[in-house]
Amino acid sequence: MTSYSDALLTDLYELTMAQAYWRSGVMGQATFSLFFRGYPKDRSYYVFAGLEDILDYLERFQFSDDDIEYLRSLGRFDEEFLQYLADVRFTGDVRAMREGTVCFADEPVLEVRAPIIEAQVIETYLLNQATFQTTIATKASRVVSAAHGRSVADFGARRTHGADAALKVARCGYIAGYNATSNVKAGAMYGIPVVGTMAHSFIMAFDTEIEAFRAFTHAFPDYATLLVDTYDTLHGVKNAIEVGKELEQEGHVLRGVRIDSGDLALLGRESRRLLDEAGFRDVGVFASGGLDEYEVERLVREETPIEGYGVGTKAAVSADAPYLDSAYKLVEYASRPVLKLSSKKQSLAGCKQVFRVPGPGSLYEKDVIALLGEDAPAKRAAPLLEDVMSEGARTVDPPPLDQLREQLAGELERLPSRYKALRGAPRYPVEISPHLKKLQQEVVRELRDKELGE
Amino acid sequence: MTSYSDALLTDLYELTMAQAYWRSGVMGQATFSLFFRGYPKDRSYYVFAGLEDILDYLERFQFSDDDIEYLRSLGRFDEEFLQYLADVRFTGDVRAMREGTVCFADEPVLEVRAPIIEAQVIETYLLNQATFQTTIATKASRVVSAAHGRSVADFGARRTHGADAALKVARCGYIAGYNATSNVKAGAMYGIPVVGTMAHSFIMAFDTEIEAFRAFTHAFPDYATLLVDTYDTLHGVKNAIEVGKELEQEGHVLRGVRIDSGDLALLGRESRRLLDEAGFRDVGVFASGGLDEYEVERLVREETPIEGYGVGTKAAVSADAPYLDSAYKLVEYASRPVLKLSSKKQSLAGCKQVFRVPGPGSLYEKDVIALLGEDAPAKRAAPLLEDVMSEGARTVDPPPLDQLREQLAGELERLPSRYKALRGAPRYPVEISPHLKKLQQEVVRELRDKELGE
User: Fold this and answer.
1) What whole-number distance in Å separates Cα of residue B33 and Cα of residue B338?
2) Number of helices and strands (H, E) in chain B?
3) How many degrees, rounded to 5, is the angle at CA B199 between CA A91 and CA B262?
């Protein structure tokens, strides 16, 4: 059977450029910088994610025989080049922020240094993973922030952009602070707690709602959260209370009720009242259905007695900002710093480091983008880009997900709250070091001179 | 190595429901209907996609030993049930619209009839594929419509939601009428033409832009479209013209120039003028950079001399509508028609067929959702749901992509143009047959009576 590798998951131009580099003998060391330009509406920080998938990809990077055969069939590549390509592995170095690091526009989150062909052909895959996963982790972090300590579960598997995306969304959500996912395969692969009880179809498969509740609690006497909105929510709560009392007599406890439609603030309060009146103060009210950070924040602000939120589609596709303007730019070739001049997208030349500078009380004050090798701009400033791959091999084991999750929670505590406002947050200050600024000016001047004769 | 199957790529509640069905002996035949509710802003029709991946999934559906072991580890499933689950295969029937069929809100695009547990546990995967791929195919169809015959290529691989999504996006785009993709693996897997030349980094790796152009045309004398906006677009066009003349002397022809930033209307016109003045009337101007159907339509309306468009991110994530409100609802259980009553989301009971009714001149006039087995509402009305799977096996071979593409193009020609307006299109009429309406009223009355005592 034909087998194409992920090395082939690249834009054709990466490979045509590779052949042109190869034929021109342009085979020197290149450094590329991956960063995000600006912010979509309502975003004021990013949560970097996608690194583990990137490192996996780099470690196994290799064109298969079928890949090469397909490229040959296109009739535009030199045979000698194809033979060279078949032997290419990724032998470069990678410095990157850890997954779950809070980061900001224009900051390199990852830098690759490798022979230019290796560093070039991986562009598409690296941008894909970093952009997608950072988009999702950032959105999820906003939901967690809006929930103010109430539990959040990922219910997005049915609406993500494909099956692979469903797994990554669950993982990014967990790093961002979700408590669980409904996605069983993600639970198995990443060790994330899984949650879930029943859908409307379950209720409808039985003659009556209360029969469906009884069938479910019979099968799961200790794990029953009953979905109450199939026919009429408050009527459903009354049925749940009746079944809850039956459970009690058998020595079990009803866990909760879930509302998936309607006015969640109103129905949440009324459901709570009915449960309390029946003596079910420990039976939780859970909500789902079209939720995002804005709606969760509203419900929390109105003190709706909802204990946990299931967030699906809108978080899982980052509906209000489904992509970021990411870039993977050549910043140095053969020890020569370079940049892209045109339009409003001038990039920063040279290999870099990002420093995070704490202020009084250890809250973050600002970041400084500096040249690699520069001294820290302040005593307690922490460098964010770490060596993660050397000569094509990981230099550190993948950290446990729980560690990334705790680290992010700690970072967000140190980010002053004004930068975490869901809307209208001011820009966190990101400075360019004087050395980098000077280099930038020199390179721009030289380019203008050389290219435009100015 | 641990190996989890895609059967596990499901919401946990599908499996808890399955155990509850199993313990209650609720094991009858169920029919589920998959449909899209309403339209996102600016959508007036859908292009159904995702069927082939759904059928692949159903044919190979089987929990692996590791899947079962993981479920066991959760400590909430009965051992006997897990043993039952290990033997479950999909043995049901599927009726569906073909991929690339134009469809509308509320119309079932797919109906599954199977023992309830089989039909239930596949919900998450089916919704995921149908929703995502229909979202993308619909967006791509709008871009093609806006381009009015100019060529369109998918450049989205770097910004889709993961690597798997990049492949599906290229495939959906091709069905919708794109001419090519930059995604090499998608080209290899699906036989889609691939395109691409160079990125800004290629220009920057050389000392000067013109040296980079020469290196590229040297490597690909017959396939060179030169990227002209790295430093200054019109200056870049002049360099391209110089290299084009050198190519001519060697007996080759420059293919085109690509502009990836700035005011595309202005730069497109100016580039055309410079090329024409140099006698390069056959050298095309291609554009990319943040394009979507709205921007392409504007450029086409203004008669910008751009011959082809590369559309990336905004089409590849369907940025203005990154998801659809899809549903997979139980419509019949053990020969009893059922529906969900509450909220504003009442579903249509019973197994169905969708008829497309042509008017004079063979343009589409309306659709009718009818009960399965009903007579066609008009002589020339065509049924849209076809048998595609019987007892778990495909009944038809996957049609070639080009066939789906041509079929869609033909359908869109028959859809009156007012329904294809990018903005403000009226609603295409979708009627409910009198039989279905009557059944609906009966089921609602019976449910109100039984559940709410009304």
Assistant:
1) 11
2) 16, 19
3) 145
CATH classification at residue B72: 3.20.140.10
The C-alpha atoms of residue B41 and residue B142 are separated, in whole angstroms, by 13
Chain A residues whose beta carbon lies within 8 Å of the beta carbon of residue B184: 8-12, 15, 70-71
DSSP B364-415: EEEEEEEETTPPPSSTT-EE--EEEEETTEESSPPPPHHHHHHHHHHHHHHS
| Disruptive mutation site among B338, B342, B444, B449 for chain A (greatest number of A CBs within 10 Å) | B342
Query: What's the number of domains chain B is made of?
Result: 2
pTM above threshold 0.80: yes
For A103, A176, A297, the CA distances from A48, given in Å and listed in that order, are: 7, 10, 23
Tell me, yes or no, whether B30 and B128 share the same domain: yes
Does residue A261 belong to any structural domain of this protein? Answer: yes
Same domain assignment for residues A339 and A404: yes
What is the pLDDT at residue B23? Answer: 95
Query: How many residue pairs bridge chain A and chain B with CB atoms within 8 Å of each other?
Result: 374
CB A35 within 8 A of CB A385: no
Contact indicator for B419, B42 with CB cutoff of 8 Å: no
Assembly ipTM: 0.96
Tell me if B298 is assigned to some domain: no
In a shared domain, residues A278 and A336: no
Per-residue model confidence (pLDDT) at position B447: 84
Tell me, yes or no, if B446 comes closer than 8 A to chain A by beta carbon: no
- pLDDT beyond 90 at A271: yes
The answer to whether position A301 is within a domain reads no
Partner A, chain B 335-354, Cβ-Cβ below 8 Å:
338-343, 345
